[in-house]
Design a protein that fits this description.
- By secondary structure, the protein is mostly helical.
- The protein has 7 helices and 4 strands.
- The strands form 2 sheets. A two-stranded antiparallel sheet has the order 1-2. Strands 3-4 form a two-stranded antiparallel sheet.
- α1 packs across α2.
- The longest helix is centred in the first third of the chain and has 23 residues.
Length: about 160
């Protein structure tokens, strides 16, 4: 019996899938957060009330966790690009695994929710944390970001083995 190694999804496919998923959740997020977003002090600034952040988190959490834990083992963006998430130990992906993966994916953005760092500095910190968090996808042979490594998951190309 010939054992084949999985083909790991690279950063271009993963990033495109992420953008597709962002577009899918943008409408419900936009509609539900609209009452909590107000014009800011300058032309381009906006003020966002805390309930908007909770709505964004909950919709993203539900979307990612539901689809990754489903038979697809992928979000619609990933599915469209023929990718899915697998565990490194070959066990079936459970809802718990999908939830853990989402929470690990979300870790770099937590700095943006702090009240002790000024907003502009928090945004820069979040950007750098995301670079550190996701840069391994560019360089590792298994294309695993830190969230994948923490959760023992990988994003692979091809069809899901059901």
């Amino acid at each position: 019996m010939k054992h084949t190694l999985p083909t790991y999804a690279g950063w271009p496919e993963r990033f495109l899938a992420y953008l597709i998923d962002v577009l899918i959740v943008a409408l419900p997020i936009g509609v539900l957060t609209q009452p909590f977003v107000h014009p800011g002090e300058t032309k381009w600034a906006v003020m966002v009330d805390p309930p908007a952040y909770a709505i964004i988190f909950l919709i993203s959490f539900a979307y990612q966790s539901y689809f990754i834990a489903s038979r697809w083992q992928a979000t619609p963006g990933m599915r469209l690009l023929s990718m899915h998430v697998v565990r490194t130990d070959k066990r079936p992906l459970l809802a718990r695994d999908a939830i853990e993966r989402f929470l690990a994916f979300f870790i770099p953005t937590l700095a943006g929710y702090t009240s002790f760092i000024p907003d502009h500095q928090a945004q820069i910190l979040v950007l750098w944390l995301k670079v550190i968090w996701f840069a391994p996808i560019l360089f590792r042979l298994d294309r695993a970001g830190l969230h994948d490594r923490l959760c023992n998951t990988r994003v692979v190309t091809g069809k899901v083995d059901l």
